[in-house]
């Protein structure tokens, strides 16, 4: 009997739990529902939407090689999901629906509504665990709670993970052609921004696999030494692919293990360090299920709800535009806007600068990041922002504030990253780029620091100390 596979953030044919399960039961029809109004309501911008559309096109081509037709509908927002899928199921005489679970609240509610509608219609539907090794709720503390601190979560993950959880799912085989035509990509939604150059981020699972192989060959063994240096391409730059499932975490982990004598948690320091980041990814996926209030714009730490964030539009704009007068912050923000991606070290530096030095609400920064990031992903972005703002799980203690100038000297010692994104500072001697003296700037149009580090630090500490303790 025919099986319907509904693709969402799992845009690949290899190692796909839902597709593998469906293909083992009968001929497969695939569907992707475009929801541009929902993506917009969730704050995603042109970079992510463009990458997603290119990913769906690539998926359609790959599926065609298996004779699996990909149907596509533009349904606006999530509200018409169940009726659309049911209509497709009935039209094509489908016996069961298959999809891989997504964890943020709106997605989980949509999926529950779909399953209820299929049940009511007497049709089977199957939700598969795919994006994580452990279903949220499976890894709990001794007291039966969700972990809210990363390190014990990671230890439990390492201890309990087994070969079955990480085994690659079967690839589908070429099926007999169905009398159903594949459908074209709907028209692109009209968005305020223009996406970044697609050539740097080729979409699809083949491009993702190439990038993974290159990372493992050239960078992975140096990852622990180079991952914090933004002037070096020392990280995998796989985040957009993982966010949309053009690559799976299992494919990453299996490839890392193959390079590391079958080990995950010990052996090569670069490879194990990288595996640890993939566990961070899973940690935040569990958080959005265990603490769903984070999906409602609420801080993880309730008492920080009362924090007196400053309404300072001019300062917010300066941060967005990379004109704070702190070169590392400014170079990073320009990297984000120009390329749609930002180095992890700099995500931490810029997020802390906005929330601590400028004392501006983390939710404004979270939204600005999502609008520009090609890898924008709710759980990781929210987790990262709340970490930096000291409102989240495992958060940086509020009194630990990065000094952006010290961070700059430490992680971009030659000022190479600064020069790449701040051409107005490129003529200065490298050492002077971190905190350019006014008289050295000449005619260069670069602003003085928007706040004094020490005074801003005191202001942030005072604001946090004023919070009632819960
Ligand atoms: P690598 O260092 O090669 O890591 C491999 C993979 O592990 C990444 O691709 C990613 O999937 C995962 N990963 C790495 N670090 C983290 C982390 N701290 N949390 C969760 N997953 C992680 N990541 C996103 O994928 N989407 C986001 O929207 C996002 N927003 C962030 C916002 C802030 C304020 C901060 C501090 C971090 C954010 N991150 C986000 C996490 C991290 O910065 C990026 O995943 C990483 O920079 C991507 O580069 P990479 O693929 O080269 O990572």
From TrEMBL:
Cofactor(s) demanded: FAD; (6R)-5,10-methylene-5,6,7,8-tetrahydrofolate
EC code: 4.1.99.3
Domain called Photolyase/cryptochrome alpha/beta: residue spans: 1-133
InterPro entries tied to this protein: Crypto/Photolyase_FAD-like_sf (IPR036134), Crypto/Photolyase_N_sf (IPR036155), Cryptochr/Photolyase_FAD-bd (IPR005101), Cryptochrome/DNA_photolyase_1 (IPR002081), DNA_photolyase_1_CS_C (IPR018394), DNA_photolyase_N (IPR006050), Rossmann-like_a/b/a_fold (IPR014729)
Keyword hit for NADP: no
Family the UniProt entry places it in: Belongs to the DNA photolyase family.
PANTHER family reported for this sequence: CRYPTOCHROME, CRYPTOCHROME CIRCADIAN CLOCK 5 ISOFORM X1
Protein's UniProt name: Deoxyribodipyrimidine photo-lyase
Native organism: Modicisalibacter tunisiensis
